[in-house]
From TrEMBL:
GO molecular function: manganese ion binding; superoxide dismutase activity
Gene3D superfamilies: Fe,Mn superoxide dismutase (SOD) domain, Iron/manganese superoxide dismutase, C-terminal domain
Cofactor names: Mn(2+)
Species per Swiss-Prot/TrEMBL record: Coemansia guatemalensis
Key words of the record: Antioxidant, Manganese, Metal-binding, Oxidoreductase
Protein's name according to its UniProt entry: Superoxide dismutase
Enzyme class: oxidoreductase
Residues that coordinate or bind Mn(2+): H51, H99, D186, H190
Catalytic activity: 2 superoxide + 2 H(+) = H2O2 + O2
Function: Destroys radicals which are normally produced within the cells and which are toxic to biological systems.
Length: 232
């Protein structure tokens, strides 16, 4: 099956050569880099199975279905139908992209979860926020204040050339407001309720124990490099 990364390049040629949907590439749920139980006791295997195999899979299935409908509407030159489909594309694409980042942002404690080693990111966090503890407190406070469902983010904000802390509603992507996502905290009930019930503050407090800072630091390095290349 063609990967998500290839789809934008391949799809126009496939469509032209083979007709709508004939060989259309589809988005797929990426495999986890770790076992379902690796994040325990912070996040249970039960949540991970449901979250990855059911919730994320549903966003992917619905994104593929919405894109099929968009292609059909385009073929009929039905502009109104294409516009009407955009909320479904936006929501499910966000669900797919956000969760894909989220899985990579996490790793078990025995494999280095929660450990922020010396890096450009560590220096930036300490310079801007004073310490990782102060940063996590700020992220948690903002994320806990989300009304309904959404995401808390540590981002690189190109507008200021620095780290930033934001939230997005529902499945909105950090990139939709011009930020580069580095670390996402899924604040949907499906991310914690089976383990923490209504005490989501404990979920927010504990999740920092399983943050894959190596992944986050790599995203920061990439974002800074891109930012600097655009400046020059
Ligand atoms: Fe989620």
């Amino acid at each position: 099956m063609l990967s998500t990364k290839l789809s934008a390049t391949v799809r126009p040629f496939v469509r032209k050569a083979s007709g709508i949907g004939a060989l259309r590439s589809k988005h797929t749920v990426p495999d986890l880099d770790y076992d379902y139980n690796e994040l325990e006791p912070v996040i249970s295997a039960k949540i991970m199975r449901l979250h990855h195999d059911k919730h994320h899979a549903t966003y992917v299935a619905n994104l593929n279905a919405a894109e099929e409908k968009v292609l059909a509407a385009q073929a009929k030159n039905d502009v109104a139908a294409q516009v009407a489909l955009q909320p479904a594309v936006k929501f499910n694409a966000g669900g797919h992209v956000n969760h894909t980042i989220f899985w990579k942002n996490l790793i078990g404690e025995k494999n280095g979860g929660g450990q922020l080693h010396s890096s450009a990111l560590k220096s930036a966090i300490e310079e801007q926020y004073g310490s990782l503890e102060k940063l996590s407190a700020q992220v948690n406070a903002k994320t806990a204040a989300i009304q309904g469902s959404g995401w808390g983010w540590l981002t690189f904000n190109p507008a200021i050339g620095r780290l930033d802390v934001i939230t997005t509603a529902n499945q909105d992507m950090a990139s939709s407001v011009g930020h580069v996502p580095l670390l996402g905290i899924d604040a949907w009930e499906h991310a914690y309720y089976l383990d923490y019930n209504n005490v989501k503050a404990d979920y927010f407090k504990n999740i920092w124990r399983v943050v894959n800072w190596k992944d986050v630091a790599g995203r920061y390095d990439d974002a800074v490099a891109k930012h600097n290349s655009l400046k020059n």
